[in-house]
Amino acid sequence: MDKIFISELKVQTKLGVPEWERMTPQTIILDIEIGHDLSAAGKSDAIADTIDYGAIVARIRETLAEHNFQLVEALAEHVCQLIFKEFGAKEVGIKVSKPGILAGVKAVGVKIERKS
User: Fold this and answer.
1) Which residues, other chains included, contact 21 with Cβ-Cβ below 8 Å and sequence gap of 6+?
2) Could you report the per-residue pLDDT of 13-40, keeping only the tens digit for each?
3) What is the number of other CB atoms lying within 10 angstroms of the CB of residue 34?
4) Distance CA 97, CA 93 (A)
């Protein structure tokens, strides 16, 4: 399976279990891999034959600005399902990181993988 990747996408969203943590947007970091057959795009050199990663980034920023989540797991699943439904991906892997949320820890988060 071919992969499109988006590395270290920084997004603002409201995320956290305590209500006070969801009062102000915070930066999260997403690493995304999207499985899709890219052979047609390799031959045609046409954006219509692939998944437009710029459109994915814009849509993720839009949806995460509109929603808030308690758990990184729920946020990861939301983004994953959005990529399946709106962009026709065959596989999606997402790593969601919350940097600097715990003292002495660079980041915490989850990594999920789904197939359509």
Assistant:
1) 15
2) 999 998 888 889 999 999 999 999 999 9
3) 26
4) 13
Number of structural domains, the chain?
A: 1
Q: What is the CATH number of the domain that holds 109?
A: 3.30.1130.10
Single out the residue of 9, 3, 102, 105 nearest to residue 58, CA to CA: 9
Nearest to 8 by CA among 82, 96, 77: 96
Is residue 106 a contact partner of residue 100, using CB atoms and an 8 Å limit?
yes
Secondary structure (3-state) at 106: coil
Q: How many CB atoms lie under 10 A from the CB of residue 62?
A: 12
Q: What's the pLDDT band for 100 if we cut at 50, 70, 90?
A: confident
Choice among 85, 90, 98, 115 that is catalytic:
98
In the residue annotation, 98 being an active-site residue is answered as: yes
pLDDT tens digits, one per residue of 50-71: 999 999 999 999 999 999 999 9
Backbone phi, psi, residue 66, to 5°: -90, -25
Expressed as residue numbers, the domain containing 58 is: 3-115
